[in-house]
């Protein structure tokens, strides 16, 4: 497990995705002590972290509640022109005690 908290970021290393025509990420998350307007996001970069593209934003009260495990399956890339990618989870919370635990992260792709 890993966790991200107030303005925290967890980023993967550079991944070779040149053999895949799409890439999905599956993971579980457990939010703890988040409040209204707190959120966390999943982003990817195909230019070695020069810029980040939003995959999805999860907002407390709209997408989840605290103290419960959730499973997520998201499409990251759907382009055969991307050779390398990085993935990151980023927290957008108001307090250092806010946390989102992330577990069992799997990247899966369809070969070209």
Tell me what you see in this structure:
- The protein is mainly β.
- The chain has no helices and 9 strands.
- It has strands spanning 2-5, 9-11, 15-16, 20-32, 39-45, 53-59, 70-77, 84-92, 99-111.
- Strands 2, 3, 5, 6 and 8 form a 5-stranded antiparallel β-sheet that branches. The chain has a 4-stranded antiparallel β-sheet with strand order 1-9-4-7, with no helix packed on it.
- The N and C termini lie far apart (31 Å).
Uncertain stretches: none
Strand content: over 45%
Q: What's the β-strand tally?
A: 9
Shape: elongated
**What oligomeric assembly is this protein in?**
single chain
What are the key terms here?
4-stranded antiparallel beta sheet; 9 strands; mainly beta; 112 residues
Give the topology.
Blueprint: E1 2-5, E2 9-11, E3 15-16, E4 20-32, E5 39-45, E6 53-59, E7 70-77, E8 84-92, E9 99-111
Antiparallel strand pairs: 1-9, 2-8, 3-8, 4-7, 4-9, 5-6, 5-8
Can you give me a brief rundown of this structure?
With 112 residues, this protein is an all-beta fold. It has no helices and 9 strands.
């Amino acid at each position: 497990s890993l966790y991200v908290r107030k303005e925290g970021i967890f980023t993967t290393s550079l991944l070779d995705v040149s053999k895949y025509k799409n890439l999905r990420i599956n993971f579980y998350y457990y939010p703890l002590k988040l409040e209204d307007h707190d959120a966390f996001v999943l982003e990817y970069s195909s230019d070695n972290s020069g810029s980040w593209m939003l995959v999805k934003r999860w907002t407390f009260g709209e997408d989840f509640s605290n103290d419960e495990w959730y499973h997520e399956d998201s499409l990251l890339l759907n382009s055969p022109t991307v050779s390398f990618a990085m993935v990151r989870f980023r927290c957008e919370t108001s307090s250092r005690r806010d946390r989102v635990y992330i577990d069992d992260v799997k990247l899966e792709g369809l070969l070209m």
